[in-house]
From TrEMBL:
It holds the Pfam family BPD_transp_2. The lineage of its organism: Bacteria, Bacillati, Actinomycetota, Actinomycetes, Propionibacteriales. The chain crosses the membrane at residues 12-35, 65-84, 93-114, 134-161, 191-216, 228-250, 262-280. This is Branched-chain amino acid ABC transporter permease. It comes from Propioniciclava sinopodophylli. GO terms for cellular component: plasma membrane. CDD domains: TM_PBP1_LivH_like (cd06582).
Amino acid sequence: MEQLAQQLVNGLALGSIYALIALGYTMVYGIIQLINFAHGDVYMVGAYVGYFCMVHLNLGFVESLVIAMAVCTVLGVVIERVAYKPLRKSTRIAVLITAIGVSLLLEYTMMFFVGADTRTYGVLPPFMEQSFNVGGVLITMKQIIIIGVSVLLMVVLQYIVRRTKVGKAMRAVSQDADAARLMGISVDNTISFTFALGSALAGAAGVLVGVYYNAINPLMGVLPGLKAFIAAVFGGIGLIPGALLGGYFIGAAETLVSGYWSSLYTDAVVFGILILVLIFKPTGLLGSNVREKV
C-alpha cells in the first residue's frame, strides 16, 4: 500500500503538468477545432525562459514563473495571428500541416540559439529540496509546489471561463461562432485570447518541469505534448474537465507502469490507451456524440 500511495503521489505531480498542457489543446480545439501541435513547443519555450531567468538573471521561482507565462502568452498570440489566422477558412489539413511546421520552427530556432545540449536549472533554493515522510510516503517540496501551482492556475482558469465577460465570449464562440459574431463578440480577439491563455498555462508547465527534473532541451516538448494531447482526447477534447481528468489519469498510469513494471513501457501503455479510447469511446470519457446535419 505504501508503494501504491507513493506512485499515486508521483502520478499526481506528473498529471498536474500534463493537465496544464492538455488545457491548451482542449481550449483551442473547443473554439476553432484545431489541434495545435506547436503547443508542446510553447511549453518548451517556457522552460527555457524560466531557465534564463533563474540561472542568468538570478530571479526567484515565482518571478521566473510569471515571466515565462508572460512570454508564452505573447508567443501564443503571435503564432495564432501569423500562422493560423490567415488560414481560418482553409482546409483542416492545411492548418494541421502549418501547426507541425510551427512546431519544427520553434524547436530548431531554439536549438540554433542555445544548442542541442541539455541544460540544468542548477542549484535550486534550499526550501525546494526539502522532503517529508508521511506514513511511509515520501513527498517532496517540488511535488507540493507543482500540485499547488497547477491547482491554483486551474481554479483561475475556471473562474475566467465561467465568471468573466471574455470567458462567456469563449463559450459563445465555441458553441456557434457566427451567432456570437452577430451578437457583437469579436471572434478574432476571442480566439487570440484563448491561445494566450493556453500558452500561459503551457509556459507555467515548462518551468515546473524544469524545476522538477532539473533538465531541459529543445526537443523536450515533443513527447509531453503528444501525451497531453492523448490526455485531452481521453477526457474528451474540447472539454476543460476532460483535460483535467485525462491529465491526471495519464500521469497516474505512467507512474504505476513505471513502478510496478518498467519505465521502458510507459510510452507504449499511454499510446495504447489512446488506441483503446479511439476504438471504444472516440469522444472521450466525458464527451458525447453529436449529430451533424449534412
